[in-house]
Specification:
12 helices; elongated; DNA-binding; RHD_dimer; RNA polymerase II cis-regulatory region sequence-specific DNA binding; nucleus; transcription regulation
DNA sequence: GTAGGAAAATTGGCCAATGCT
DNA sequence: CTAGCATTGGCCAATTTTCCT
């Protein structure tokens, strides 16, 4: 089906797999006439990723595909001139004949594969934004040609071309070139006599870009797209369910990004004319070098990439339909098996274990890692809590090397998916021992690491850093649903494809603990909200749990005793148990008090994330009694500074009483706190100044000073008459 | 190449002033 | 003329991004 004519000498056609039930309803509109197609192989029912179904078609989940990977191919009008595209994940090229192809004049100047390495295979962090931009810029053409073809554009813009074992050709660049040209015709009304060899890249000049962009960027810093920007979720109509399959009516990229799309020599030169930091430019060299340099021997074997495919010639003219539409239909309870040609999309949930096979992150990354911007140098690889690097291991399979994928995912409450504002970044250097390669899958940068039996199917992740993309660059993408601001936590996601005897691949996935990637959060002062116990033996060694915020395994906890004049009389650092720490809690061993005394000693402790980053000091009591039966629970609210907190009583034989400032039914409790066997629960009047729950030990005959707690009234938990404060 | 620190720039919330109905 | 509501712009703290060392 021919749907448009963008240039006098360029007739293009989008062809899809043969008819059948369609996924989102739109593809049916672009089905080719059956008469133009050769006989079809037996139709296989295939499942579609739910995220790619329109809201109104959630019940239509299957389509019939003639090929494992329905594809769009751009070729020249004259079939004699076209260059066959490489396959994708399964040697699909073999199956291509004269159908499902779109012919374009193969003009070297239009896109010279040798000079224009794929933007999607870029090593450059900056080029990543460019990659997105190229995808974006290419998409709008479908907006203009036919609204129903928007979905077709999504397909084309989905995953880059991937070799059977993951090697990438270039999709984005070719699409970009194609799309920008059409975009120009729509928005810039170029002369019909424009040379077909005219570079679409250069045709989008910085000036034209600025004139089209809602707000130009006068400096290197991003500016608000329309003055004072409101929350980007303000217009839900512009948003799609998947930020990675989105389109923009205009190239939503900066001039730098657009230029950087396609780093041919001329463009690299032009790029250098722009105000681009040297650090950023330098990555181009790395990128080109990466593309041209021989790969590591082991990985080369592993990837098994045909040389001609590596050259990315025909591949650059080949548009791959996302694999979402083409994998085997899983049934309930079925294993996560996929055809080699149809890996699951990156936002597809996968188990970490099936049968004997398990993918496990043996060593977790530490809870924060400052990501670097494109304008910065690398900030190194992700570190582990213990100081080394994360360690991933595949157990239950060691027959042959398998490919491990690593990407940066989200850490919010929603489904794990590639993070829009962070990308994995390959770290190189003398200290890096793990061989890896960067790829682009579904517009997400992915590291490929080989797990080999010789290494017990383990890999130390010392080659993965985290790149931060500028919020403005990402949020300007039409359809982007996430906001970058305060969206600074990520997870490191690992995937592996385990070959099965029947030829399928068993896909497993595991993700790390959340990793905070912003500098600021790392700098913020730690804050202790609760701790227990509130007293301990002077002998030390007792376990203590702090909860609050801005904590980490790298935090230190200092215990100090100060004299009346404020001088430090004693100081000791607690031993933090890093494996049991998180951003909101620290587990430590209380240090021994080395002074001989028979009386309790009031000391203080604070959490430190470095100099100038200390929490407020909290009071703590060291008692010369070894036996410590009772656990106590304290809450520290802002309205109740530590010095005014209730002084705990220390008796080994007193019953508990629990004071709560919230109704009992909503009273929070510590899951680690031992049950209170003799407790009498109290609730307070609603105007209590306290905001947290308290458990207070009380001597049986001792008056509880409620006034010091900011309480006016307490009632027994069983509803009996209240105790009035006098 | 890494990393820490901090300055500069941007963003978003709040609120008063202003304009319109 | 007044009340109610929406819009606009300034202020400021929080956050992001860039730069320096």
């Amino acid at each position: 089906m021919s749907f448009g004519k963008c240039r006098d000498d360029l007739d293009f056609t989008l062809l899809f797999g043969e008819e059948g039930r369609q996924t989102a309803g739109s593809l049916s509109d672009v089905r080719p006439p059956s008469s133009l197609l050769p006989p079809l192989p037996p139709v296989a029912e295939q499942q579609v990723h739910p995220s790619h179904l329109s809201e109104n078609n959630q019940d239509v989940a299957y389509y019939h595909g003639a090929f494992h990977c329905p594809s769009i191919q751009i070729t020249s009008i004259a079939p004699n001139n076209h260059v066959e595209a490489g396959g994708a994940w399964g040697g699909v090229s073999d199956t291509f004949g004269g159908r499902d192809q779109l012919y374009l004049p193969f003009d070297p100047s239009y896109r010279d594969p040798a000079l224009c390495p794929s933007p999607c295979s870029s090593l450059s962090s900056r080029s990543w934004v460019s990659d997105l931009s190229s995808c974006e810029s290419s998409s709008h053409v479908y907006d203009d040609v036919d609204g129903d073809l928007r979905d077709a554009a999504r397909l084309a813009l989905g995953p880059p071309l991937v070799s059977p074992l993951g090697s990438l050709g270039s999709l984005g660049g070719g699409v970009a070139a194609f799309g920008v040209e059409l975009w120009q015709q729509k928005y810039q009304h170029p002369s019909p006599q424009q040379s077909p060899s005219h570079s679409p890249r250069t045709s989008v000049t910085e000036e034209s870009w600025l004139s089209r962009r809602p707000t130009s960027r006068p400096s290197s810093r991003p500016t608000s797209p329309c003055g004072k920007r409101r929350h980007s979720s303000a217009d839900p109509s512009l948003r799609s369910s998947s930020p990675h399959l989105t389109m923009s009516p205009i190239p939503a990229c900066s001039p730098r990004g657009c230029v950087a799309d396609d780093p041919g020599p001329a463009l690299v030169s032009a790029y250098q004319d722009l105000d681009v930091p040297l650090k950023t430019r330098r990555t181009w060299g790395g990128q080109l070098g990466f593309l041209n340099a021989p790969t590591d021997e082991g990985l080369e074997t592993f990837l098994n990439v045909p040389e001609e495919e590596e050259q990315a010639t025909a591949a650059e003219l080949f548009l791959q339909v996302p694999s979402h539409f083409s994998w085997s239909k899983p049934k309930p309870g079925n294993p996560p098996l996929f055809r080699p040609s149809s890996p699951p999309p990156l936002d597809w949930p996968l188990p970490n274990q099936y049968d004997q096979c398990e993918l496990k992150l043996e060593v977790q990354p530490r809870s924060f890692h400052r990501a670097h911007y494109e304008t910065e140098g690398s900030r190194g690889s992700i570190k582990a809590l213990t100081g080394g690097h994360p360690l991933i291991k595949l157990s239950g399979y060691a027959e042959q090397p398998v490919r491990l994928l690593l990407f940066i995912g989200t850490a919010d409450e929603r489904n794990l998916r590639p993070h829009s504002f962070y990308q994995v970044h390959r770290v190189t250097g003398k200290t890096v021992s793990t061989v890896c390669q960067e790829r682009i899958l579904e517009c997400t940068k992915v590291l490929e690491i080989l797990l080999v039996p010789e290494n017990n199917m383990c890999a130390s992740i010392d080659c993965a850093g985290i790149l931060k993309l500028r919020n403005a660059d990402i949020e300007l993408k039409k359809g982007e649903t996430d906001v970058g601001r305060k969206n600074t936590r990520v997870k490191v996601v690992f995937r592996v494809a385990v070959p099965q005897p029947d030829g399928h691949m068993l896909w497993l996935q595991t993700a790390s603990v959340p990793v905070e990637c912003s500098q600021r959060s790392g700098q913020e002062l730690p804050h202790v909200e609760r701790f227990r116990p509130s007293s301990a033996s002077m002998d030390g060694g007792e376990e203590m749990i702090l909860t609050g915020s801005n904590m980490s395994a790298q935090s230190t906890v200092m215990f100090v005793e100060k004299g009346p004049d404020g001088r430090s009389l004693w100081e000791a650092e607690a031993r933090v148990l890093p494996q049991r720490c998180s951003t909101s809690s620290i587990v430590l061993e209380i240090p021994p008090y080395n002074k001989a005394t028979s009386r309790p000693v009031q000391v203080q402790f604070y959490v430190s994330n470095g100099k100038k980053r200390r929490s407020l000091a909290q009071s703590f009591t060291l008692v010369p009694v070894v036996k410590q039966e009772c656990w106590e629970q304290h809450s520290i609210s802002d309205s109740l500074p530590p010095q005014s907190a209730p002084t705990p009583h220390h008796s080994s034989s007193v019953p508990y009483q629990t004071l709560s400032t919230v109704p009992p039914q909503s009273q929070t409790s510590w899951d680690l706190c031992p049950p209170l066997n003799t407790s009498t629960a109290f609730s307070t009047s609603a105007d209590s100044q306290l905001g947290h729950t308290m458990s207070i030990k009380q001597e049986p005959e001792e008056r509880l000073n409620l006034g010091s707690l900011g309480l006016q009234e307490i009632t027994l938990d069983d509803g009996k008459k209240p105790y009035q404060l006098r």
